[in-house]
Amino acid sequence: MMKPILSILLTTLSISAFAQRFDPSETMSPLVRAIIQKQISTHSNGLTGGLNKTTTDKQRLIGYSSRNMQNGVIDDTSSLTYSGFRGSSFANCNENASGDRGAYSKPDIVNTVATFGTNLMLCTYDGKDSLSTEYDSLGHRLNVYTRNNVGDPIVLDYYDTLNNNPPRHLTTYSNFDNQHRRLYDSSWQYMKTVSVYGQGVDSFMYYVWDNTSGQWKTAYKTVAVYNNAGLPTNYYSYNGNASNGWNQSGRVTCTYNSNGFLTSAISESLNNSTQVWQYTIKQVYDYTGNHPLYSKYEFYNSYSQAGGWQGYTKNDCVGNSVGNWDTVYTSSWDTVSHNFGQPNKRVDYTYNSFNLVTQMDTRSYNQASGQFSPTKTERFYYEAYTVPDAVTTIHTISPEITAYPNPVSGKLHVDGNIGSKNVSVQMISITGARLFNATGNWQSMNKDIDMSSFASGVYYLVIANENGDKIAAKQIVKN
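RESULT FIELD:
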């Protein structure tokens, strides 16, 4: 089964964002945003280069500026500094456009100067380029991560750097399974989560600490149901507790197209008085060809028996040949016609030869002139750098490994003369995304990889030792 979306929600670390900027997905619910993010990541087609990629020519984001075109003032700037081979990794233009604060990159320093003030973010990493510490001056926080030998964050120490007399300190402990899914999160005398993964059904129980009784009390639970392709089709939320019975409070129904891309997500809540389900939110998507980045997004925020769904915003996205957006038109709901009106805003994207966003021009519709007038110009700056090839850089003499069938459409069988060593078996896409990772002793571990859900294309099978050094690699073709 694919990694559950709720697991992503629990593990997502968001870099602080401060300035108001164009985000076509800003109205998406966290649940749906996570589905879209996973969808794009799973079907990534190698638009950009930067972080742990398999080609040596890279560009990484090092600067950003935003100019108000109505008064000519530069109201937001940021600079990013890196060490080693760390860089940027954007699956699409939407991630690229939100990367100026360090999201989807691994910078050491992010320095921001904007109308809201200044902020300094400092990050350190371990030998495997996993985040170790993260300091945010404006947010007055310091996060310290302790990881197990496969990179899962098993301890998170949060420090409040403003109220430091005495310092406010919160520790969260986590356990993971061999698929890097969270089984347990607990912050002492605060809150905890217990996750159970099954065949097509996952459940998540949430607890809060009760100071009066001095014990954990159940707060609510959620249940996720998946189809045969491992895509989440239904989410159910419950209030109450295990001893007195659970009361269903909400549900979300998701549908997909033949490519496995999300086409709709409809949320409902249960009226406690009438016990009747009521529609609350509907989110609708459309796509161009097999590109996973949507070409249309509609958000409806209310429903009535008499009038049906009432919309809020709509984005029509004009894509290019690699699946990025060239232009996005935004429309609002017209309460007179009961439909989406004419576009009131447009954003134009400009790219470099790496398909990285170099400029975004925002224009608002001027009723008087009947044309779009410029309101904001954002620029993105990059530096070129070279990294060792992620597959051909082998730290020891490469042993012979076999992988068959190759090309493969379903299960890939891996074998070879590596000996009794503790290793990790990884499958990496051409964009550098690690899509599979299993650890154990080479002689006794299960070395089969189910690639049936992988998109067609070229992948790299990588065997690494306990130190993370790659000791063998092989190119795999998925039909």
